[in-house]
Amino acid sequence: MTIFFSPASSEHQKREKTKARELRQSHWWKNQLGKGLCYLCEEKVLPKDLTMDHLIPIARGGFSNRKNCVPACKKCNTKKGNKTLAEVKMDEIEKEKD
């Protein structure tokens, strides 16, 4: 599936990446990591192997806040990239058809 979107401004992306770095230092984020659970595949993962995933990617106008950030294993986060969860699911459905 081809994804077309107009990327968020470079100012927005820079601002939100800075906020994400700050959010990673918060007690809330450390508690999320402590659960050791990937939001996307729901697998148990060592906390050190979890990354911050934005449900609505920063590149697409998403924000770095508690409502939009979830822990994800590196494999899932890389696979998701700049897609939304719906787009990832649609890709999976298309692959099942083949």
Can you tell me about this structure?
The protein has 98 residues and is mainly α. The chain has helices at residues 10-23, 27-34, 74-80, 85-97, and strands at residues 50-54, 69-73. A two-stranded antiparallel sheet has the order 1-2. The longest helix has 14 residues, at 10-23.
What is the straight-line distance between the termini?
13 Å
Report the order of strands and helices: HHEEHH
**SS-based class:** mainly alpha
By DSSP (H or I, 4+ residues per run), the number of helices equals 4
Which percent range describes the beta-strand content? 5-15%
**What is the count of β-strands?**
2
Quote the average pLDDT. 94
- Using only C-alpha atoms, the radius of gyration works out to 14 Å
Strand order of the main beta sheet, please? 1-2
Poorly predicted tracts of residues: none
Topology at a glance:
Layout: H1 10-23, H2 27-34, E1 50-54, E2 69-73, H3 74-80, H4 85-97
Antiparallel strand pairs: 1-2
